[in-house]
Amino acid sequence: MKNLSTILATLVLVFAFMNSASAEDWKVSATAKKKLNPYELSKKNISTGKKVYQTNCKSCHGDPTKANMLPLVPAPADLGSQNFLVQSDGEIYHKVKVGKGAMPTFEKTLNDESKWMVIAYLRSFDKNKKKAVVTKAVVNPEVSDVKIELDIDSEHKKLKAHLTGLKKDGKRAGLEGIELSFLIKRAFGQLDISGEEAYTDAKGELLIQFPTDLPGDREGQVDLTIKITDEDEYGVIEEKRVLSIAVPTNPKNPLDERAMWGTRANAPIWIIASYLLGVIGIWSVIFLVLFQVFQLSKMRTKS
Ligand code: HEC
């Protein structure tokens, strides 16, 4: 009983201590606060930042402005809320760098550029800064039935995507300045071959060089998916194709060679030899014993 109360008292103390530690302020020095984002608030940086956010932050912080973060205590902030965005770039940068409690430190796991890109992405939700977003002055007409068509130049391994939408007057128009992703299915996940500047031009076209040394299957085939990277504007728009433009490969079947995991005929010689030796050895001993027993009984009949 006395033991139990000691344990309880210790636990209470430990919890009190932990609480006081987490209640401590997230101190950011004045110089750290003044740091500015060296990257401009361009459409491209924001979209890069969005990717970083979705892989590293979304699991806890949810979608910016949607307030659907994990119910942790203390709660991860909604990083798209105006309350949060009153903080300076430097302040956010510092917090992401050092972390606190359940919030991991990203000092080593994210490079500087990625950290600033995330901040650019978060800034794009800032009502006061929204106007500052550098966008190419493209205004696409209002369209429906958006689709991606693909031209393939197998000889030069070039792919041309053509992004169009149906305008109100029934004509198709190219959509400009939209980022597309070209994804090749690999054994584990997808390989993005679209490169850095994969935006459609004024005609809604985008030309991509297919990697000349990328291996495909026996016939040089690969599965390609082309899609609009950002699904916010037009929803999920994608086009899937099987292309025969990769380098054909003939993967060796590991069961065809002599190896430990080979089938009976393909087992390594030494395993077959030692097995046979073992079998022969055991049978010889058995025969030897039988032979001796037979000799014994013969001796008895003689005597
Ligand atoms: C494992 C969950 C988790 C992940 C992943 C995570 N955070 Fe956090 N984050 C938290 C928690 C919990 C807090 C609140 C910490 C506190 O107040 O003690 C927080 C707080 C913050 C704050 C301070 C909020 C404020 O009100 O000042 C910022 C900024 C932040 N996170 C940015 C990020 C960014 C950017 C990423 C991705 C690169 C990220 N976090 C990833 C859990 C997480």
Q: Helix and strand layout, with pairings?
A:
Blueprint: H1 2-23, H2 30-34, H3 43-56, H4 58-61, H5 82-85, H6 89-98, H7 112-123, E1 143-153, E2 158-167, E3 172-174, E4 180-185, E5 190-192, E6 205-209, E7 222-228, H8 231-234, E8 238-243, H9 269-302
Antiparallel strand pairs: 1-2, 2-3, 2-6, 4-5, 4-7, 7-8
Helix pairs in contact: 3-7, 6-7
Task: Name some characteristics of this structure.
303 residues; alpha+beta; Cytochrome Bc1 Complex, Chain D, domain 2; Immunoglobulin-like; four-stranded antiparallel sheet; 9 helices; 17% strand; flat; binds heme C
Structure description:
The chain has 303 residues and is of the alpha+beta class. Among the domains are: 30-132, Cytochrome c-like domain (Cytochrome Bc1 Complex, Chain D, domain 2, Orthogonal Bundle); 143-243, Immunoglobulin-like (Sandwich), CATH 2.60.40. The chain is 36% helix and 17% strand. The chain contains 9 helices and 8 strands. It has helices spanning 2-23, 30-34, 43-56, 58-61, 82-85, 89-98, 112-123, 231-234, 269-302; strands at 143-153, 158-167, 172-174, 180-185, 190-192, 205-209, 222-228, 238-243. Strands 1, 2, 3 and 6 form a 4-stranded antiparallel β-sheet that branches. Strands 5-4-7-8 form a 4-stranded antiparallel β-sheet, with no helix packed on it. The longest helix has 34 residues, at 269-302. Heme C binds next to helix 4 and helix 6.
